[in-house]
Amino acid sequence: SRRYFIGEDIEWADTVLSATLLAWVLMSFVLQAFKIPSSSMEKTLLIGDHLFVNKFLYGLRVPFSGKRVIPFKAVSRGDVVVFRFPVDDPRELHCGSMQYGKDFIKRVVAVPGDKVQVIGGRVFIDDKPLADEPYAQWTAQYREPESVRAKELAKERYQDLWQNHKLDMELHDIMKDHFGPVVVPPKSYFVMGDNRDASCDSRYWGPVEERYIKGKAWFMYWPPSRMQGVR
């Protein structure tokens, strides 16, 4: 009867609506699918790897704000995180082009209050070499010398340029092997790609403020041969 078909249509529409709502909740608050776009995280993550990002581990994000509630853990050194590129001006050029609004993936190397320096391509935290980096690789045949222009900058000026995402505008592409020292500001993180000689990261465009972080890289699901957790 007509009433039967109307009832079936309503039930079908309700199922579709419920599924759509559930998918929206999952993608907004729980998981995000992410595809690796570049070689900056090799060999940990390869171009074309597909993974899920855990969006609730660091806390549920309050819509239309940068605030998080009910965090299960803090962002820690060694975490691989996905974040929106940390600038709010779409006209800014970083890494040779406009990065505004793009999602990036890098590893947290330093947390708020850490003093960070790169000497000859190696990372130092609070004046001590960050020795335990089994994930990192260096592919360049030689180390670039420290920039004379960087040496001329006063420490306060260097910190201010870096903290405000202006250092690469001042020094251009010369911070790969010699950088800092800087101190990571509150609610911010210093991130780098595991493929150190092929990563445009916090050495160039500054810290990642907490409000830009979307979540922690969690599980690779494609290709099947690489299905595993992200570490």
Overview of this protein structure:
It is a single chain. 23% of the residues lie in helices and 29% in strands. It contains five helices and 16 strands. The protein has helices spanning 2-30, 148-152, 155-163, 167-171, 202-205; strands at residues 31-35, 50-54, 60-61, 68-69, 80-84, 93-94, 97-98, 103-110, 115-119, 122-125, 128-129, 178-183, 188-192, 208-209, 213-222, 228-229. Strands 1, 2, 5, 8, 13, 14, 15 and 16 form an eight-stranded antiparallel beta sheet that branches. Strand 3 and strand 4 form a beta hairpin. The longest helix is centred in the N-terminal third of the chain and has 29 residues, at 2-30. The protein starts with a helix and ends with a strand. Mean pLDDT is 86; it is low at 22-26.
Q: Output mean pLDDT.
A: 86
**What would the principal axes of the Cα set say about the shape?**
globular
- How many individual helices? 5
Count the beta strands.
16
Q: What distance lies between the first and last C-alpha atoms, to the nearest angstrom? A: 58 Å
By helix and strand content, what is the structural category?
alpha+beta
The biggest sheet, with number of strands, parallel, antiparallel or mixed sense and barrel status, is: 8 strands, antiparallel
- Along the chain, the helix and strand elements come as HEEEEEEEEEEEHHHEEHEEE
Model regions low in confidence, pLDDT < 50 over at least 5 residues: 22-26
Helix content: 10-25%
The amount of beta strand, in percent, is: 25-35%
